[in-house]
Specification:
CATH architecture of the largest domain: Alpha-Beta Complex
Number of domains: 2
Shape: globular
Largest sheet: 6 strands, antiparallel
Radius of gyration: 21 Å
Structural class: alpha+beta
CATH topology of the largest domain: Aminoglycoside 3'-phosphotransferase, Chain: A, domain 2
Oligomer: single chain
Distance between the termini: 39 Å
């Protein structure tokens, strides 16, 4: 994650007072801060890092500015949703031991719906993956994936409900991805129909509907996790947390691993040892590990496939690599149990 230095926060900015008098005391700062340096994250124009001039603390501010259109189905700003999600996970006691979930320090609807959370100094998971590929630090990636598998297993198992998965949501999401690829990236309608046919085949499988719903992270990509010493896992960006199939998270991360290795090596099988390791480690938190592994790996191809579709629709993906992603997505979506 790269930061761009923007200067000092003006003292007459209302956010300055909010950080001084509402946020700083929660971080154990009993003197009044003298001011703040401001940095912008390169991945989003509405996310900033605020650093107290004396180095006492750093926090992240996420905004939802006036006039910004909310995504279909949303009834409140995503920053408010994330504040509530983070508060709930902290109340569940998930922020303990080696698990660190970013702390919700404040939500202020009067300051462009800003959400303020604490900042983690760990290493982004994406860097760990790149080091495994480029520097052959494979064992370290295996260890970090084990730690992440434990966190997701604890999150999912602790929140498992009594009602079953509603596959209509990931089914509809698949359709939106397909239409986005047609309308924005020029995918042929004939190819879209092939993806729609595969989607229908998955809908008819009882295994896609029978597991219990759990709370999922909702955007389990490497950019939303950092790692520290040992098994420490740092978790953030939980605005998309939802009740869903646990494999939604597992397939998202598996698809991202496949993408990282495919993009760097050109080998569609290069990520398989890491994907298999991650899933096997996750299943170690169930009474019958092998039975859990069989159940999860039946559903993984669908969620991995739609993750590849999600990546393929990005504007930064060139035509040749988009074709590779679409072909890999088809291969996975054809693996119907």
């Amino acid at each position: 994650m790269h930061l761009h230095y923007l200067g000092h926060l003006p003292p007459d900015d209302p956010l300055d007072g909010y950080l001084r008098f509402d946020i700083a005391p929660q971080l154990g700062v009993h003197r009044t801060p003298s001011g703040f340096r401001v940095f912008q994250f390169d991945f989003c124009r509405d996310v900033y890092l605020y650093e107290e001039l004396g180095g006492a603390f750093r926090v992240v501010g996420k905004f939802f500015p006036p006039g910004r259109r909310m995504a279909p189905g949303l009834v409140r700003p995503p920053t408010e949703t994330e504040f509530q999600n983070l508060t709930y996970l902290h109340r569940l006691g998930l922020n303990n031991g080696s698990f660190r979930i970013t702390r919700p320090l404040g939500y202020n609807p009067w300051l462009h719906c800003v959400l303020v959370v604490d900042h983690f100094d760990g290493q982004p998971l994406g860097e760990v993956i790149h080091q495994a590929i480029r520097q052959d630090r494979r064992n370290r990636l295996f260890r970090k994936l084990s730690a992440l598998a434990e966190f997701l297993a604890v999150l999912h198992n602790r929140t498992a409900g009594d009602w079953t998965v509603d596959f209509s949501h990931p089914y509809d999401y698949n359709g939106r991805l397909i239409e986005s690829l047609v309308e924005k990236r020029g995918m042929a309608r004939s190819e879209a129909e092939e993806f729609y046919h595969l989607r229908e085949n998955w809908r008819a499988r009882t295994c896609m509907w029978e597991d219990r719903r759990v709370l999922v992270h909702g955007d389990a990509t490497p950019s939303n996790f950092k790692v520290g010493p040992g098994r420490e896992v740092m978790v953030f960006d939980l605005e998309r947390m939802a009740w869903a199939d646990r494999v939604f998270d597992l397939g998202r991360l598996a698809g991202e691993l496949k993408h990282f290795f495919l993009q760097e090596t050109g080998d569609p099988w290069a990520a398989e040892p890491f994907i298999g390791h991650f899933l096997w480690e996750y299943c170690g938190y169930f009474p019958d590990r092998r039975d859990a592994f069989r159940s999860i790996t039946r559903r993984i191809p669908y969620y991995l496939g739609i993750t590849l579709l999600r990546i393929a629709r990005n504007a930064w993906v060139d035509w040749n690599y988009r074709r590779r992603l679409l072909e890999e997505a088809k291969q996975n979506l054809r693996a119907i149990p």
